[in-house]
């Protein structure tokens, strides 16, 4: 498998995210970057599989932007291992 890094941008009227594969860690992981804020998150295979298996109701609650993204009284905190 090639380790060449190819970025893709996934976008809609609500969000724009750069997606790439990061090979710098112990194993490949997905690198997601919010192009509006610069916020970056890394997801490994287990985290991605967890998302795939989420019930639609649980995923819908995670997608509510008022819970984390658009609140002025909180800042997004990324765990140090991400």
What is the element layout, followed by pairings?
Elements (H helix, E strand, L loop, with lengths): L7 E4 L4 E7 L6 E6 L5 E4 L1 H9 L2 H7 L20
Antiparallel strand pairs: 1-2, 2-3, 3-4
What does this structure look like?
With 82 residues, the protein is of the alpha+beta class. A hairpin with a 6-residue loop joins β2 and β3. The protein starts with 7 loop residues before the first strand and ends in a 20-residue tail after the last helix.
User: Structural class of the secondary elements?
Assistant: alpha+beta
How many β-strands, per DSSP? Answer: 4
Radius of gyration: 14 Å
> Poorly predicted ranges (pLDDT <50, ≥5 residues)?
none
Mean pLDDT, to the nearest integer, reads: 84
Helicity level? 10-25%
Which term fits the overall shape?
globular
Brief write-up:
The chain is of the alpha+beta class and 82 residues long.
Summarize this structure as a short list of keywords or feature phrases.
globular; four-stranded antiparallel sheet; 4 strands
